[in-house]
Amino acid sequence: MSSPAMQVPVGVDFGGSGIKAAAVDLDTGDFASARERIPTPQPATPGAVLEVLVDLMTRLPEATGPVGITVPGVVRHGVVGSAANIDDSWVGTDADGLFTEALRREVHIVNDADAAGLAEARYGAARGRQGLVIVTTLGTGIGSALIHDGVLIPNSELGHLEIDGHDAESRAANSAREREGLTMAQWAERLGRYYRTIERLFSPDLIVVGGGVSKQAAEFLPLLDLETEIVPATLLNRAGIVGAAYYACR
Ligand code: BGC
Fold first, then answer.
1. pLDDT in tens, 50-91
2. Is residue 177 domain-shared with residue 227, that is, in the same domain?
3. How far is the CA of 57 from the centre of ligand 1 (A)?
């Protein structure tokens, strides 16, 4: 017999090109279903994303628990507070309220990097680590999660640190490497400057590097000259979905 505590949660990863969802097994941090993907509508307004969510939920009929959704912006109490790389109409939207009412089930949104950070802290590269862990995601922007003794301090937004007069992510995100055709060595110089700034400001015990490019960590992490231990993320493209589902059930 199923009880609310046994309902399987769903994680949704809202990205620039695709919206991906899967049921999640919170004991193991693995998917409990196939991963479903629908291309991100353009423009990706809250209303357009809601239609995609309705479709995704019908594809995961077994998972009836809470839904966690990543958003690439600041999230405070379910309300989106910034939109660096998403449609401006998200700002001020009470997404928890809107989606919970429309899907008739509990929905919680969470910053994308915070979700990845929670997933790495619970199931991945930072599992069991005490002290201050900083998880960064290198993608279109730079996302960050601050986790102290396993507790998330949300919305750190360290991709927007101003370094040498620039928004850090405009120079050091993976999108900057691709846009400017930088070699790994050239990009690693910028990353080194970025992570040394983080080191100086926060004195973390561990830095975790996530985002799709972390698959190539062996090509750039050894080039960084840091005092802090720095390791690649281990959940890779599962981190957003798993972290969002975990967040929704906390
Ligand atoms: C946003 C963050 C987000 C990061 C990664 C930044 O531009 O401000 O909220 O976590 O990109 O998507």
1. 999 999 999 999 999 999 999 999 999 999 998 877 889 999
2. yes
3. 25
Number of Cβ atoms within 10 Å of the Cβ of 238: 23
Q: Kindly write down the DSSP assignment for every residue of 10-60, as one continuous string.
A: EEEEE-SSEEEEEEEETTTTEESSPPEEEEPPSS--HHHHHHHHHHHHHH-
Distance 73 CA to ligand 1 centre (A): 5
Q: Whose CA is nearest to atom 1 of ligand 1?
A: 73
CA distance 173 to 142: 6
Residue 120 lies in a domain: no
Q: Which domain holds residue 28?
A: 5-114+238-249
Q: Kindly report the CATH number assigned to the domain that includes residue 170.
A: 3.30.420.40
137-157 residue pLDDT tens = 999 999 999 999 999 999 999
Q: How many domains does the chain have?
A: 2
Q: 14 with 107, same domain? A: yes
Q: Which of 193, 202, 93, 95 is nearest to 145 (CA)?
A: 202
The model's pTM: 0.96
Which residues have any ligand 1 atom within 6 Å of their CB? 72-74, 82, 84-85, 111-113, 137, 139, 141, 143, 157, 159, 169
**244 in the same domain as 223:** no
